[in-house]
Amino acid sequence: MHSELRMHPRMPTKLPAEMILSEDVSVDVIILNLSVGGMLVEGSDQMFHAVQAHKPAFPIEVDIYFGLQALPVRSHCRLIHTVRKRQDLYQMGFKALSMDEQSSNLIRQTLDDYTLTRVL
Hints:
Layout: E1 11-20, E2 26-35, E3 38-44, H1 45-53, E4 61-68, E5 71-86, E6 89-99, H2 101-119
Antiparallel strand pairs: 1-2, 1-4, 2-3, 3-6, 4-5, 5-6
């Protein structure tokens, strides 16, 4: 049995996002769940191969850009784990290392709103 290691509540999502690995390399991903502490993203084998090519820089850190409430959010993240769901589909868990105050506040507000609607 796995114990829960997450420090922050998370919310299921299907947010389109862009993962920036370097100035020249970015891939489109979907954020499956989101918290102030990190996120789970899903992407094609293109995402997996781009991250593998980036592996000499270990630990792997990326920027992830997405939108919440029609405002941009940017998070600098570290790759924590990778799961292959099928031949051409991967999920990657990221820990948020840094984000600007507006991004952090947007995520907190969205999570608070989500929590309130779940209780009602």
